[in-house]
From TrEMBL, chains A, B, C, D:
Organism of provenance: Acetobacterium bakii
Gene3D superfamilies: Metal-sensitive repressor, helix protomer (1.20.58.1000)
Keywords, comma-separated and alphabetical: Cytoplasm, Metal-binding
Alphabetized InterPro entries for the sequence: Metal_Tscrpt_repr, Metal_Tscrpt_repr_sf
Name of the protein described by the UniProt record: Copper-sensing transcriptional repressor CsoR
Entry-linked CDD domains: CsoR-like_DUF156_2
Presence of the UniProt keyword Cytoplasm in the record: yes
Biological process annotations from GO: negative regulation of DNA-templated transcription
Localisation per UniProt entry: Cytoplasm
Keyword Nuclease: no
Any GO CC annotation of this UniProt entry: cytoplasm
Amino acid sequence: MEKKDRSTELNLLKTARGQIDGIIKMIDDDRYCIDISKQVLAVQALLKKTNLEILKKHMNHCVKTAFEEGQGEDKIDEIMLVLDKYYR
Amino acid sequence: MEKKDRSTELNLLKTARGQIDGIIKMIDDDRYCIDISKQVLAVQALLKKTNLEILKKHMNHCVKTAFEEGQGEDKIDEIMLVLDKYYR
Amino acid sequence: MEKKDRSTELNLLKTARGQIDGIIKMIDDDRYCIDISKQVLAVQALLKKTNLEILKKHMNHCVKTAFEEGQGEDKIDEIMLVLDKYYR
Amino acid sequence: MEKKDRSTELNLLKTARGQIDGIIKMIDDDRYCIDISKQVLAVQALLKKTNLEILKKHMNHCVKTAFEEGQGEDKIDEIMLVLDKYYR
């Protein structure tokens, strides 16, 4: 299988890393709790987006291939274990 | 496509409905906030389980069929829209 | 402490119960998985709203009183245990 | 108000940043989607823990002070807006 284009995920992760640096600085500057908390939520939103992107490509590539090879149900079980943790 | 076995989902939903009746009674009895809140969380856990079950069957049946018919990517897009709401 | 006004929570819970009845009917009618899944998500949103309402009143009444009586930290610990489950 | 001890939050954030570096490397190494996804979930769990810690201190310090000064309800409204985003 060809290597997937991961530029979207890489950009999201690098942005998330930069924002974490910013939050560490906010704490050093003793900024207001709720403002810090909102920034942490923003990073969580980026990571969520990253994970949805990973999962989408996984389904369109690996799961598709697995169904073609008659092993789709194992892949689905694997995804469900991840979704169980994603989602409340 | 044959009709799916939905007994797991039906049982979960009927249990959830019974628990909601119980929570309404807890409120009528003026029970402690945190105890009520925990029961609401328990119903949310049941609905989460219901939704994972629905999604699992959807992937093993509808998505499988769609990939076989060359329309898998549309189905994946549709699932991703639902997952986006599921998951933070 | 006077009895809290719980009409908002009761209305939300009764609506949730009605929607669950609707979902059970959707399953009996063999409706499309994704449509069922979206309705389950809608009920989860109602329960989330219910829980936020319960928590808000809890903080404005019980937690306030607890801080006045010097026992606020115990109440906060109790809330954090609930939030830990709420929130991913 | 004295400066809060933020060492727990700082350690969690620095660990999260290190894990994001690791995930970027996993992507460069073209590792399996589900393994990458699990690592993203692990960072989200760290950020969740960070936010709960921030919120707990906020409630034990700022909210306590606000209730003492008769402005507790405004603080609670502010927290509820954050919780609304936290929690599904």
